Amino acid sequence: MSNTMDFVPSPIPPAALAELEALIDETAVSFDRTLVREHDRGCDVIADASWTEFTSGSASRGGSSRRIRRTIVLLHRPDATLPEFQILPKSGFGGGLLTAASRVLGLPTLDLDDEPEVASRYAVMTVNANSVRTLLLRPSLDALTVVSDLNLKFGARGVLAWRGAGGLQSTDRDRDDRLDEEGRRLLLEDAVAVCGPIVDDPEVSRRAADAVEGTYAEEAARNIAGAGGIVGRLLSRTLITREMTDSIREQRPPRSGIPAPIAMKAWRGTTFPLLVVGGLGLGFSTMAVMLLFFAPGSGDERIAGAVFGGVGVLALVATFFVVRHRWTRIRIVRRGHVVEGSITRVERTDTAVNGDTVHRIHLALDGREDPTVAKAGTAAANSARRMLDRGARTWALVDPADPRRCLWIEGWSIESIGD
Q: What CA–CA distance (Å, rounded) separates 97 from 20?
């Protein structure tokens, strides 16, 4: 039985904090009532996490928001090599939606038909079905038949546990899922019962890695490519493989035949909203010209014309800067120079683009005195942390027009994370 008596109030160790923030994957997360237990395998953390979740748009666009507060447990194991997957309860309204969505959309799940009692209580979401099946040994499966409302999110270096909304994103406004002392103790006890056999036995993760051909990432790439359903088809369209990034690295600029997923990633967004905003800008600007120069010269019409003109100019300026930024990224993919180097730091920001937290990847590139910074999303940042841990070499595309700008293309590949 686990208890909180051997935990001490303490700041979360930096490596564990980085893993925890990556697993929560929200911006500006704060922690209080933090307790830490350090041991030879890593550390365990109990804390109350809180963050602001924007339900539409973003903070800068005035989107509505809610405050989420949740008690979490992290079992951090820096020497582990685990595939990424989630175990989510089927109970409640959220669980019903999850089950229905899995059937209709074809969400990537692990078939648990041989464990009907577990399957009736929990869903395992993963694109690494074969390796995850090897991880779920009898002690963990038995524990899942007796614990209730337990949410688990596994990363390469540990697991995050919580109770509450059935996922790290809630549908209620200002949701508070913090637990009292007894609830915190029970959350820790249940997390250790289910996850301890997985994260605390190095042989288990090694058997899981050996259960499939290649790395976890290569297994995921194969499963995504062969997946059916709506989600599977969408993932396949955006999947970037090492073969694709290698084709960029091996081609001399100017490059041609850019793989479609890389071009989409470089464009970094959809075109339709830009067309809408640009069209509105042109429309408002045209109305402003008509009111200011061709309509009878009343004061009200001139005021309306000035307002329409201001809105139109702002929309056109915003469209121009977004298009210029995206076109610069496309130009770097086509004409950028390949420069090798190493990762020196991964820095999380409080900015998100399309719901994906932006990170700064600090690169020491060969032949350059000053560090170069590339911006990347959460998945690429996780790859960067693993490479930083291993001291692995990497490469980036540097803008020939401005060497301060670069794209860390290698991090876009699903196979950039090794076991």
A: 26
Task: Tell whether 242 is covered by a domain.
Answer: no
Contact 323, 275 (CB under 8 A): no
Supply 383's token pair.
């790859």
The alpha helices in 44-156, defined as continuous H runs, are 92-105, 116-121, 129-135, 138-144
Asked whether residue 221 is domain-assigned, the answer is no
- Domain assignment present for 74: yes
Q: What is the largest CA-CA distance in the chain?
A: 83
Q: Are 22 and 381 in contact (CB under 8 A)?
A: yes
When divided into structural domains, the chain yields a total of 3
What is the tens place of the pLDDT at every residue in 59-78?
444 457 788 999 999 999 99
Q: Residues 170, 312: one domain?
A: no
Full domain range(s) for residue 272: 267-327
Indicate the pLDDT class of residue 5, thresholds 50, 70 and 90: confident
Helices (H), 33-115: 92-105
Mean pLDDT value across residues 173-189: 90
Say if CB 328 and CB 399 are below 8 A apart: yes
Query: 3-class SS at 31?
Result: strand
Calpha distance 15→37 (Å, rounded): 14
Shared domain check, 273 and 173: no
Residues 303 and 360 in one domain: no
